[in-house]
């Protein structure tokens, strides 16, 4: 983002509510204009419908059992995109309580209470969400409203288990009719352009389209950057020695020192300690491509015990004996199952209410912050190698699509200030997460009712959390704010946009997402104002500062703005930023005033053709 | 371990000396108890050092002494960073990683001369010529500098615990001993008890000194050749000097009494009310519109002037009691209460809801609560609505011993001696933090302060009752006033609040802060010794800091101010936090000619640059903030900020200091009723005060990150606004800020080259503002873009604990200094031109 042009644009930005789906804030504003129809029944537009959104069911006598405010009576609407509940306020002045949840967020729907259950609000459905909340609706037993609600939710929240299609496809169809005003978010990431930005091709690295048909590696992108010394045939041979053919490919290069970060999967060493001379030679090519160092560092994201255990399954790690001038470090980051369990505990501690007397111990016991600390520490170690020692680093875990993506993306964010802009961050996600095959479909389980699937894991969420941690330590190093990150997390689940659908680039091409769905970036970039950090146009903006966050539980905090955001008592205060905006706009206003005066006086001066150029107002 | 820059940016300089020192076993340094000034130089000249040759300049190692200060003991020593970064990057690596601590030890310590004086413990690094200190030292300028203390100096008053680490054996060098501490755990770590000064046995290889302000200092001593020096042991020398001087048994042994330097106050124009006179209290009564209350001065009460009677009462010199009650009757009632603390008025809000502090009945009188009821009835009569709420704090808030325990546990978390300990704590940090109870107590204080404030807001008087009415009462009472009254959120107001609640109403600072280790109890029980110690004041400062976090634009002061205030508690030179009672203070002046020097005269300790970091760039001053006592301050600043002086029309500001007849003034409270704060007080909402507690841990220093960057950004914005406003005012656009050219895309006028000599001449005669212009002009001429680039780089290496924390050690580039100094000039300029009220 061009800074000089950006400054003026950014100034009049709005105050941002940090935790809402933007669709929700939209709907609230529409709600206020809503009025009650003839029969005292709600008219059928309680929120702004999105393109392609259609009503599926509506019930006017449902009770939402709010964990904070108690039961509320109102109307429930289910569309193919969302579940919307609007309470009927008892008094006129009282604003209605609105719950608006994209169906994609729903992990599980369960019936509670049966024909025999007694007591108020004990018969209904409970909805378990992927975004750290549960919703409970109570129905009247008599009128059988529960059955249709339950069925419609099942059908629309889990379309892939019910032969349906995800909302993203319907949404884009509507979009095409209306046309989208902004530029296309699908064009944000151009692999070759991004490589050119890093200085590839150069003397040591080349870009190759060897994988254009995804034949060499079906979970890798079409375009790779590889050492020039390695021929295409050679690459094919190296691929055979890496788990799922995910051979080392360039992620980032320091344009100044040519120290690189490359990523791959584990080598297929096995129990017998197999060796592959091509793989060994290939790593030495990577090392030699960096003239600054005669060493290569391999960062194995796993705990060393796990890496050793993987040998039994045919995997393993590079032995320092077999690979010349290579040092290997284990970064002690645990696997997807550990992380899933940890986040489950975070939800337990944060939702619906927190226990103040045991809060800190409860958070400690989730181990979530310790896991975040490990990821940060790993990324800082990579940064240190690449930046301070000018040594190239190879990062891998087992398959190289979970922990590896966390580490490469995070260390690139720390090293390269470009990725700390809105545009750059979008590129980073497109590149390190989407194109290199982080299995979003499996990890999130879009439109799929297998809520206890062992492949689900909050790996990407953990990355976003780590980015937030860095942004908390370096308040002015990011062009975007917390709201931007929360929006990404919200739409990670919402299935409104095509961005996070499918597992690999190959699948996305097959599904033709670029044409059949809208990109999240199109949506975000069309209303940038609310996602910008007012502190960003600041000292470090252009300084090519390498960030080294502190990886200690003392410095890492639980992201209350994300995990505790449903609890109205825990909303964080954002007053400081408001003052910053005021000061910025005051400054801008004065600048404009001076500029006008100067332009005017300059014009006068030129007409008078004075010899003295300085200070025309003297 | 690697260098953490713990030695004030001198880590680089230590490399050579530390390495060389090992070769020189025959160290002939002798130290003297209390040598005359200049003695040390003589020692160095006549008795040649066998340390590296450049260390012959040992007189350079002599600490700068204040008037009345004497060196008690000196010894060469190595200073270690409190805890070293585990990687060179300063990050904590994940546990179980294959690369453990870097083994190169030569950078971990700084060699120098460690001295104990009657005022401080001073370490002066001795630098080898290969790494001249000049490269790193100037960086220190931007960080907080104290006129009385260097970066490696602490007052003896600040020392809480001293641990000795026994020598590990003949073969071990001092460096190995220090490292051995890490590997062998703390088994050889022994705490020195204040009254066991003759009990130091065995050789001392190293000392760990834990300070009351969360600092941990580590020194190691070189082993000595016993054939020449017999049993003399440098560690022991220092340790026994410390034990003797750091734990004075009488207050008049404090350095304050030796330091005879006269004090010339510059506080005269300040808006800080000292509550030292009857008028101060009367003004506060008027400001609050408290018409039902009267000020009593002991000097005008015959009963209290009677030497036979006065001893029965321990009342402060001035206090405020209900008008409906005669002084004699009040004093009679007060005898039933602990420390004679019967119902002192401290504040009124709205239409006469009063905040009152009350002690509990004496243990002997507790059976009969009649007197308490009589007292409460008197207070109730003063309330407009005849309503009153009694908030008993003793059972609801921690005892002072609880506060001390929490503080000690918290400090343990903040002063790990080794990286291993740090990581062990880190692994279950939040649980450990919870176990300290510190945040729980902060949460309780905020909760009851909110409750008290809400009571007053609802128009009901509130009585805070605590056993002696002088500890947690102070916390809750002053917090409630911070919540209610914007005046107390200004710097002057806050200082007045501390004077009123803590100093004038006699919080026992001397006992609570451990300024004096009174009579030695039988058996030297350390627990007993500490039973009177308790950092109640820190608890209050922490609560204030939490409010600052929640309401960042409501306070005129910054967290730096609060942290500095805590540090200042241990400066014996300032009397503010040195005494239990006013009587004690007056006695010290009378009997020992003690020079009284209020801590609020910040210019005594700090330069203008450092004082600048006390004021919050986000603060928005509003009309109502200028209460009665702030008028003088407004006048003082009126030159700089014209519009603010115009607001100084608050009631009863200047007229007639002598006649304080309330009838002359409006009886209505001049406290705005719409600017109260309602803080969140649950533990979930609280944070650890990292600047105050973590600042000595370089391992937690986020280089280029944290709050200082945000703070500086706002200062820069204010400075830009002020500059442009000035340009508009004078219609002269020569000195527009860099941001202007960036924002408008206008090219900077390039005529500066021709005018440069003129400008430099001009700069000779003018103050900082113009000098700044000179530097920009110079730098800007060749390449405009580059100046700002390097400027950014500069600020990006600031400590996140700035202005505390450590400047970068070792190889900081030369040009950094230039930019630092120019940016600090820029910031000073900001402070004088802040016209906050004119910004919407």
From TrEMBL, chain A:
<dbReference type="InterPro" id="IPR029021">
    <property type="entry name" value="Prot-tyrosine_phosphatase-like"/>
</dbReference>
<protein>
    <recommendedName>
        <fullName>phosphatidylinositol-3,5-bisphosphate 3-phosphatase</fullName>
        <ecNumber>3.1.3.95</ecNumber>
    </recommendedName>
</protein>
<keyword id="KW-0443">Lipid metabolism</keyword>
<dbReference type="InterPro" id="IPR030564">
    <property type="entry name" value="Myotubularin"/>
</dbReference>
<feature type="compositionally biased region" description="Polar residues">
    <location>
        <begin position="14"/>
        <end position="28"/>
    </location>
</feature>
<feature type="domain" description="Myotubularin phosphatase">
    <location>
        <begin position="185"/>
        <end position="563"/>
    </location>
</feature>
<dbReference type="InterPro" id="IPR003595">
    <property type="entry name" value="Tyr_Pase_cat"/>
</dbReference>
<dbReference type="InterPro" id="IPR011993">
    <property type="entry name" value="PH-like_dom_sf"/>
</dbReference>
<dbReference type="Pfam" id="PF06602">
    <property type="entry name" value="Myotub-related"/>
</dbReference>
<dbReference type="InterPro" id="IPR010569">
    <property type="entry name" value="Myotubularin-like_Pase_dom"/>
</dbReference>
<dbReference type="InterPro" id="IPR004182">
    <property type="entry name" value="GRAM"/>
</dbReference>
<comment type="similarity">
    <text>Belongs to the protein-tyrosine phosphatase family. Non-receptor class myotubularin subfamily.</text>
</comment>
<dbReference type="Pfam" id="PF02893">
    <property type="entry name" value="GRAM"/>
</dbReference>
<feature type="region of interest" description="Disordered">
    <location>
        <begin position="1"/>
        <end position="28"/>
    </location>
</feature>
<dbReference type="InterPro" id="IPR016130">
    <property type="entry name" value="Tyr_Pase_AS"/>
</dbReference>
Automatic annotation (TrEMBL), chain B:
<feature type="region of interest" description="Disordered">
    <location>
        <begin position="1"/>
        <end position="22"/>
    </location>
</feature>
<protein>
    <submittedName>
        <fullName>Myotubularin-related protein 10-B</fullName>
    </submittedName>
</protein>
<dbReference type="Pfam" id="PF06602">
    <property type="entry name" value="Myotub-related"/>
</dbReference>
<feature type="compositionally biased region" description="Gly residues">
    <location>
        <begin position="1"/>
        <end position="16"/>
    </location>
</feature>
<dbReference type="InterPro" id="IPR011993">
    <property type="entry name" value="PH-like_dom_sf"/>
</dbReference>
<comment type="similarity">
    <text>Belongs to the protein-tyrosine phosphatase family. Non-receptor class myotubularin subfamily.</text>
</comment>
<dbReference type="GO" id="GO:0046856">
    <property type="term" value="P:phosphatidylinositol dephosphorylation"/>
</dbReference>
<dbReference type="InterPro" id="IPR010569">
    <property type="entry name" value="Myotubularin-like_Pase_dom"/>
</dbReference>
<feature type="region of interest" description="Disordered">
    <location>
        <begin position="741"/>
        <end position="763"/>
    </location>
</feature>
<feature type="domain" description="Myotubularin phosphatase">
    <location>
        <begin position="271"/>
        <end position="693"/>
    </location>
</feature>
<dbReference type="GO" id="GO:0016020">
    <property type="term" value="C:membrane"/>
</dbReference>
<dbReference type="InterPro" id="IPR030564">
    <property type="entry name" value="Myotubularin"/>
</dbReference>
<dbReference type="GO" id="GO:0005737">
    <property type="term" value="C:cytoplasm"/>
</dbReference>
<dbReference type="Pfam" id="PF12578">
    <property type="entry name" value="3-PAP"/>
</dbReference>
<dbReference type="InterPro" id="IPR029021">
    <property type="entry name" value="Prot-tyrosine_phosphatase-like"/>
</dbReference>
<dbReference type="InterPro" id="IPR022587">
    <property type="entry name" value="MTMR12-like_C"/>
</dbReference>
<feature type="compositionally biased region" description="Basic and acidic residues">
    <location>
        <begin position="751"/>
        <end position="760"/>
    </location>
</feature>
């Amino acid at each position: 983002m061009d800074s000089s042009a950006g400054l003026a644009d950014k100034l009049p930005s709005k105050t941002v509510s940090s935790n809402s789906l933007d669709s929700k804030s939209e709907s609230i504003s529409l709600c206020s204009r809503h009025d009650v129809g003839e029969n005292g029944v709600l008219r059928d537009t309680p929120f702004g419908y999105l393109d392609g959104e259609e009503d599926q069911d509506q019930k006017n006598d449902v009770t939402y059992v709010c964990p904070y405010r108690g039961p509320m009576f109102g109307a429930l609407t289910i569309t193919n995109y969302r579940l919307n509940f609007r309470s009927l306020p008892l008094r006129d002045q009282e604003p209605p309580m609105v719950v608006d949840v994209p169906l994609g967020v729903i992990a599980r729907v369960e019936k509670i209470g049966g024909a025999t259950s007694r007591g108020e609000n004990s018969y209904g459905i409970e909805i378990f969400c992927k975004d750290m909340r549960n919703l409970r609706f109570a129905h009247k037993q008599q009128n059988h409203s529960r059955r249709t609600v339950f069925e419609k939710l099942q059908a629309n929240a889990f379309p892939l288990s019910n032969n349906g299609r995800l909302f993203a496809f319907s949404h884009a169809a509507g979009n095409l009719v209306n046309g989208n005003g902004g530029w296309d978010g699908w064009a944000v990431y151009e692999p070759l352009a991004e490589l050119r930005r890093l200085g590839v091709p150069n003397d040591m690295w080349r870009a190759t389209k060897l994988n254009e048909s995804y034949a060499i590696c079906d979970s890798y992108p079409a375009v790779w950057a590889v050492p020039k010394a390695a021929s295409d045939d050679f690459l094919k041979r190296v691929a055979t020695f890496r788990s799922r053919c995910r051979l080392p490919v360039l992620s980032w290069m320091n344009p100044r020192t040519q120290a690189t970060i490359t990523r791959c999967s584990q080598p297929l060493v096995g129990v017998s300690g197999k060796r592959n001379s091509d793989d060994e030679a290939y790593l030495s090519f990577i090392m030699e491509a960096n003239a600054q160092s005669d060493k290569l560092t391999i960062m194995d994201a796993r705990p060393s015990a796990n890496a050793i255990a993987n040998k039994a399954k045919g995997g393993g790690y590079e032995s320092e004996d077999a690979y010349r001038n290579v040092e290997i470090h284990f970064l002690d980051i645990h696997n997807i199952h550990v992380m899933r369990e940890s986040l489950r505990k975070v939800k337990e501690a944060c939702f619906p209410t927190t226990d103040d007397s045991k809060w800190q111990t409860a958070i400690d016991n989730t181990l979530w912050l310790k896991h975040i600390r490990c990821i940060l520490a790993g990324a800082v170690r990579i940064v240190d190698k690449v930046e301070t020692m000018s040594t190239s680093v190879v990062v891998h875990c087992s398959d190289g699509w979970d922990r590896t993506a966390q580490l490469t993306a995070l260390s690139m964010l720390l090293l390269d200030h470009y990725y700390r802009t809105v545009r750059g961050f979008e590129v980073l996600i497109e590149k390190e997460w989407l194109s290199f095959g982080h299995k979003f479909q499996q990890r999130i389980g879009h439109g799929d009712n297998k809520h206890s699937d062992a492949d689900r894991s909050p790996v990407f969420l953990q990355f976003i959390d780590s980015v937030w941690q860095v942004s908390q330590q370096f308040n002015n190093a990011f062009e975007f704010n917390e709201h931007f990150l929360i929006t990404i997390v919200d739409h990670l689940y919402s299935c409104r946009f095509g961005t996070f659908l499918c597992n690999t680039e190959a699948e996305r091409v097959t599904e033709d997402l670029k044409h059949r769905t809208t990109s999240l970036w199109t949506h975000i970039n069309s209303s940038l104002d609310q996602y910008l950090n007012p502190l960003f146009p600041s000292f470090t903006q252009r300084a090519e500062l390498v960030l080294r966050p502190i990886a200690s539980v003392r410095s890492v905090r639980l992201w209350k703005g994300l995990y505790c955001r449903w609890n109205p008592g825990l909303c964080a205060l954002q007053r400081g930023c408001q003052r910053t905006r005021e000061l910025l706009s005051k400054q801008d206003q004065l600048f404009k005033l001076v500029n006008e005066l100067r332009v005017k006086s300059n014009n006068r001066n030129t007409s008078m053709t004075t010899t003295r150029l300085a200070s025309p107002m003297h | 371990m690697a260098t953490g820059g713990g030695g004030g940016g001198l880590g680089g300089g230590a490399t050579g000396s530390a390495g060389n020192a090992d070769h020189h076993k025959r160290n002939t340094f002798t130290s003297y108890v209390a040598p005359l000034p200049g003695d040390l130089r003589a020692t160095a000249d006549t008795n040649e050092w066998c340390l590296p040759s450049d260390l012959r300049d040992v007189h350079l190692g002599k600490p700068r002494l204040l008037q009345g200060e004497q060196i008690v003991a000196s010894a060469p020593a190595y200073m270690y960073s409190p805890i070293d970064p585990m990687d060179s990057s300063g990050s904590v690596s994940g546990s179980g990683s294959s690369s453990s601590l870097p083994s190169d030890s030569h950078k971990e310590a700084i060699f120098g001369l460690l001295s104990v004086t009657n005022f401080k413990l001073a370490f002066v690094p001795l630098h080898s010529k290969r790494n001249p200190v000049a490269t790193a030292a100037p960086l220190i300028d931007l960080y907080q500098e104290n006129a009385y203390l260097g970066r490696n100096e602490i007052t003896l008053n600040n020392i809480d615990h001293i641990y000795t680490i026994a020598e590990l054996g003949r073969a071990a060098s001092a460096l190995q001993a220090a490292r051995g501490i890490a590997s062998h755990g703390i088994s050889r770590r022994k705490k020195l008890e204040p009254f066991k000064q003759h009990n130091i046995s065995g050789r001392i290889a190293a000392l760990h000194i834990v300070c009351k302000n969360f600092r941990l200092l580590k020194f190691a001593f070189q082993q000595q050749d016993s054939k020449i020096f017999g049993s003399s042991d440098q560690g022991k020398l220092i340790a026994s000097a410390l034990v003797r001087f750091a734990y004075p048994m009488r207050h008049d042994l404090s350095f304050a009494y030796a330091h005879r330097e006269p004090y010339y106050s510059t506080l005269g124009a300040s808006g800080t009310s000292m509550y030292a006179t009857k008028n101060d209290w009367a003004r506060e009564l008027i400001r609050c519109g408290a018409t039902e209350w009267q000020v009593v001065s002991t000097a005008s009460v015959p009963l209290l002037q009677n030497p036979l009677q006065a001893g029965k009462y321990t009342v402060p010199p001035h206090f405020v009691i209900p008008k409906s009650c005669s002084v004699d009757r009040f004093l009679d009632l007060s005898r039933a209460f602990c420390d004679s603390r019967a119902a002192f008025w401290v504040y009124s809000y709205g239409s006469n809801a009063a905040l009152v502090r009350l002690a509990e009945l004496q243990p002997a009188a507790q059976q009969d609560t009649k007197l308490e009821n009589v007292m409460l009835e008197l207070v109730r009569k003063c309330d407009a609505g005849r309503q009153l709420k009694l908030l008993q704090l003793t059972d609801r808030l921690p005892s002072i011993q609880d506060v001390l325990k929490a503080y000690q546990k918290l400090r343990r978390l903040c002063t790990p001696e080794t990286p291993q300990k740090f990581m062990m704590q880190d692994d279950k940090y939040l649980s450990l933090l919870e176990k300290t109870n510190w945040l729980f107590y902060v949460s309780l204080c905020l909760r009851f302060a909110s409750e008290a404030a809400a009571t007053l807001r609802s128009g009901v008087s509130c009585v805070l009752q605590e056993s002696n009415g002088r500890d947690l009462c102070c916390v809750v009472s002053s917090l409630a006033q911070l919540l209610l009254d914007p005046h107390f959120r200004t710097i002057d107001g806050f200082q007045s609040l501390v004077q009123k609640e803590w100093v004038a109403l006699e919080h026992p600072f001397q006992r609570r802060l451990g300024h004096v280790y009174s009579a030695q109890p039988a058996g030297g029980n350390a627990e007993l010794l500490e039973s009177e110690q308790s950092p109640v004041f820190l608890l209050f400062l922490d609560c204030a800091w939490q409010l600052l976090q929640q309401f960042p634009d409501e306070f005129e002061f910054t967290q730096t101010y609060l942290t500095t205030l805590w540090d200042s508690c241990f400066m014996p030179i300032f009397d503010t936090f040195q005494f239990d009672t006013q009587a004690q203070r007056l006695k010290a002046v009378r009997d020992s000619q003690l020079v009284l020097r209020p801590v609020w005269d910040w210019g005594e300790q700090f330069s203008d640059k450092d004082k600048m970091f006390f004021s919050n760039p986000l603060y928005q001053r509003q009309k109502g903030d200028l209460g009665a006592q702030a008028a003088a301050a407004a006048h003082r600043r009126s030159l700089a900020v014209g519009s603010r002086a115009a607001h100084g029309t608050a009631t009863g500001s200047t007229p007639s200091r002598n006649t304080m007849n309330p009838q002359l003034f409006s009886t209505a409270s001049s406290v705005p009723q719409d600017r109260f704060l309602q803080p969140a007080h649950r533990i979930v909402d609280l944070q650890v005060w990292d600047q105050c507690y973590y600042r000595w841990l370089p391992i937690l220093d986020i280089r280029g990150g944290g709050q200082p960057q945000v703070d500086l950004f706002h200062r820069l914005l204010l400075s830009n606004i002020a500059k442009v406003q000035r340009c508009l005012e004078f219609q002269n656009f020569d000195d527009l800020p860099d941001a202007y050219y960036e924002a408008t895309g206008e090219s900077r006028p390039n005529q500066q080259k021709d005018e440069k000599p003129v400008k430099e001449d001009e700069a000779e005669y003018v103050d900082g503002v113009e000098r700044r212009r000179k530097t920009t002009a110079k730098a800007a001429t060749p390449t405009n873009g580059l100046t700002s680039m390097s400027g950014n780089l500069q600020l990006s290496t600031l400590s996140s604990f700035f202005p505390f924390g450590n400047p970068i050690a070792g190889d900081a580039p030369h040009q950094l200094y230039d930019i630092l100094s120019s940016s600090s000039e820029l910031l000073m300029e900001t402070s004088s031109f802040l016209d906050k009220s004119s910004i919407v």
